[in-house]
């Protein structure tokens, strides 16, 4: 059956890494007798330039009519002077809200071949394998009122952090489900010593935990979690937390691997299409130079194949190809070292495709 994928290249290096992704998907389709249809839409700064809207209705329609959505990246200094409500990032926030993508999954795994790239000691990062489950459609990023008031010395800014019981329970339950499938431990991250929303969060974790007796769980304050991610990241299996905390902690955790260019993410709804994207930004300083690292985007494809298309064999084949390429010493500029030479975005993509072909037997 044909799988329809909405491709939203976005800004900066987004078009380059999305091109890599479509090449790899086409090869997977050839090897495993699948057909992928790509439908393109505008999001972020490029959409503002064309339509004045960071999330055009046409793009939203394309996404709703697709089986999955692949996003490159949004934003850049070109649009930094726009009012907050009109900036490229609002397109992404709006897409998450409109598609009800409430659960953001960010795996953090150390590749053996890249352990030396981590700013932490190898004995600290070796064996790290954790999953951050972040609530994505509530909290301070979406709360109202959200405004600036007054002028001069009397000027103030207001953001509002709001969570409902339903929003908290569904993401907490998702965290317990993943912990049940993995190693059986959940760390719930909050700020219950200060925030009322976190106290409600903690109460709901206690309630939901009764449905998962096979999962052990702990509560951890967010400031301590930030420290523990650096001190001993191996202690974590699944972390579940609210929107802003998850945003910050997942970016911190990404640097355990040595590069933002290495980590994927998936944003899931209850029923509709999921959104798959690298967690790195648009990197406008290197856009168009052909040196962006496509591996986070290609790793996002493994999550798409797993969660959206139920193709675990294909997902494993792609992940193994990425592992093989890194083990052979192939590096883009962001992960190179004194012993390796940087290759281009296209060269890295071709290396992954070569590994796919070399390692897999095409379906008959």
TrEMBL record:
Cofactor note: Binds 1 Mg(2+) or Mn(2+) ion per subunit.
Binding site for substrate: 96, 106, 134, 223
Amino-acid positions noted as binding NAD(+) in the UniProt annotation, renumbered to this chain: 76-89, 281-293
Functional pathway: Amino-acid biosynthesis; L-leucine biosynthesis; L-leucine from 3-methyl-2-oxobutanoate: step 3/4
Co-factor(s): Mg(2+); Mn(2+)
Positions of Mg(2+) binding: 223, 247, 251
Catalytic activity: (2R,3S)-3-isopropylmalate + NAD(+) = 4-methyl-2-oxopentanoate + CO2 + NADH
Keyword Transport: no
Top EC class of this enzyme: oxidoreductase
Molecular-function GO terms, alphabetical: 3-isopropylmalate dehydrogenase activity; magnesium ion binding; NAD binding
GO BP, sorted A to Z: L-leucine biosynthetic process
Pfam short name (any one): Iso_dh
InterPro entries (UniProt xref): IsoCit/isopropylmalate_DH_CS, IsoPropMal-DH-like_dom, Isopropylmalate_DH
Keyword annotations of the record: Amino-acid biosynthesis, Branched-chain amino acid biosynthesis, Cytoplasm, Leucine biosynthesis, Magnesium, Manganese, Metal-binding, NAD, Oxidoreductase
Assembly notes: Homodimer.
Family: Belongs to the isocitrate and isopropylmalate dehydrogenases family. LeuB type 1 subfamily.
NCBIfam families linked: leuB
Protein name: 3-isopropylmalate dehydrogenase
């Amino acid at each position: 059956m044909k799988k329809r994928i909405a491709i939203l290249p976005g800004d900066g290096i987004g078009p380059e890494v999305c091109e890599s992704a479509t090449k790899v998907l086409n090869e997977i389709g050839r090897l495993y007798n699948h057909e992928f249809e790509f439908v393109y839409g505008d999001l972020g700064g490029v959409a503002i330039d064309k339509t004045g809207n960071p999330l055009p209705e046409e793009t939203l329609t394309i996404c709703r009519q697709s089986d999955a959505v692949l996003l490159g990246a949004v934003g850049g200094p070109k649009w930094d002077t726009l009012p907050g409500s009109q900036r490229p990032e609002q397109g992404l926030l709006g897409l998450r809200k409109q598609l009800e993508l409430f659960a953001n999954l960010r795996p953090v795994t150390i590749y053996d071949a890249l352990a030396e790239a981590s700013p932490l000691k190898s004995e600290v990062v070796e064996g790290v394998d954790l999953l951050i489950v972040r609530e994505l459609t509530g909290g301070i990023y979406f709360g109202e009122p959200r405004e600036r008031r007054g002028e001069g010395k009397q000027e103030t800014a207001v953001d509002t952090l709001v969570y409902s019981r339903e929003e908290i329970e569904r993401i907490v339950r998702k965290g317990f489900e993943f912990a049940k499938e993995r190693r059986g431990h959940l760390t719930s991250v909050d700020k219950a010593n200060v925030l009322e929303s976190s106290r409600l969060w903690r109460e709901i974790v206690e309630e939901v935990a009764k449905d998962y007796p096979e999962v052990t769980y702990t509560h951890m304050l967010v400031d301590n979690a930030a420290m523990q991610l650096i001190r001993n990241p191996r202690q974590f299996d699944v972390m579940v937390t609210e929107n802003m905390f998850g945003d910050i902690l997942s970016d911190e955790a990404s640097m355990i691997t040595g590069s933002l260019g290495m980590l994927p993410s998936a944003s899931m709804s209850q029923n509709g299409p999921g959104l798959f994207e690298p967690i790195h930004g648009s990197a406008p300083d290197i856009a168009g130079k052909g040196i962006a690292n496509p591996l986070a985007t290609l790793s996002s494809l493994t999550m798409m194949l797993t969660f959206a298309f139920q193709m675990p064999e294909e997902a494993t084949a792609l992940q193994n190809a990425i592992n093989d390429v890194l083990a052979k010493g192939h590096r883009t500029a962001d992960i190179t070292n004194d012993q390796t030479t940087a290759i281009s975005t296209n060269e890295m993509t071709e290396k992954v495709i070569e590994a796919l072909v070399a390692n897999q037997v095409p379906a008959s």
